[in-house]
Amino acid sequence: MLDAPMPQNQVGSNVAASQHGFLFATGIENSAPTIQGGRLRRDQMRECGHYERWREDFALVRELGCDALRYGPQLHSTLRAPGLHDWSFADEAFAEIRRLGIRPIVDLCHFGVPDWIGDFQNPDFPALFAEYAGAFAQRFPWVQLYTPVNEMFITAVFSARYGWWNEQRADDRSYVTAIKHVVRANVLAMREILKHRPDAIFIQSESTEAFHPECPASVPHADFRNAERFLTLDLNYGRRVDSTMYEFLLDNGMTRAEYHFFLDNRLKRHCVMGNDWYQTNEHLLNAEGHGRWAGEVFGYDTVTRDYHARYGLPVMHTETNLDEGPNGDEAERWLWKQWSGILRLRREGIPVLGFTWYSLTDQIDWTSALREPAGVVNPRGLYDLDRKPRRVGLAYKRLIESWREVLPTQSLCLQVPLSAA
């Protein structure tokens, strides 16, 4: 329905807080960038069958024993015009999520914007998105956990540096423009959500990266990329970027006033640093600065230490997956490897508050990063597209069952308003 009054039974109450200080989560893949000059939208909810099987999908989340679900309505179909929202699907879906007692981590923008906005070069996007985020929070006041813009770094890189999605540009000025618009949208959205939910918590699901030089000539390139990887989180958390990044931003169109907008925000106390980790997140750079996947050199826990040392925030592992491989066990091995890294970090006193296998079901065409509409099924889900459990899904269910009651809690920040802390 288009902006109809919210049912009264949704007003003024809250989902029950998790009984544990640790969140076991999964997600419904809702990437929706455009390709082919904006002519084709890669809506993964549609391609993976969620619109037809959403009730079944939510029931599977409960079957796994997950506390939380990364999930959100599609921005391109919900935000119909400035201030005009179609909540018809969201109303039904979130009512069912609430009925089942699943705690949503609401993902409001996942790699794409409505056709009428265009792309991330549009300077109107931040304000339009912030208004939408506030409208969502007003309509669903029981929701506390949010990821306003998913993977801000990857959104900008794939859209305006690699030329793969949305604006499909590949120059530094367009890239900086995408960064400043995406992060500004995230900051303004947090402000709007807090007006309606003052104890909202923002879990920044962001890709964590590491760049390695393969020869002495590639050291400057690796140094630059290892500073650049922090740009979106630095700006989001109001942290001063290093001098090389400051010059890069100003040389490519960011004004001093725009930079100081980010420095002046004070929202970090409402945030959990969500970080995403895949086999492809470490890169080996050659003398020309071109990269290829390095495999795991450091691994999740080592790179997460770097990010935690920089921001000093609680951490949540917000995305990972792996194809099941020819023997069907590679995804399960990866699951236990990620879990071991989390336990190591917690033993060292780093407050890791949750873990996410992303996503609930298999995905489509991620071998080409959605650039080619080939219909290739990526067997990375806890369930296949027929909603049959994969080996990793059964392993994740066992992991949750065995660790839920014995994992020592480190933080109750998911139950206590951070603004009062």
From TrEMBL:
InterPro entries: Glyco_hydro_1, Glycosyl_Hydrolase_39
Protein name: Family 1 glycosylhydrolase
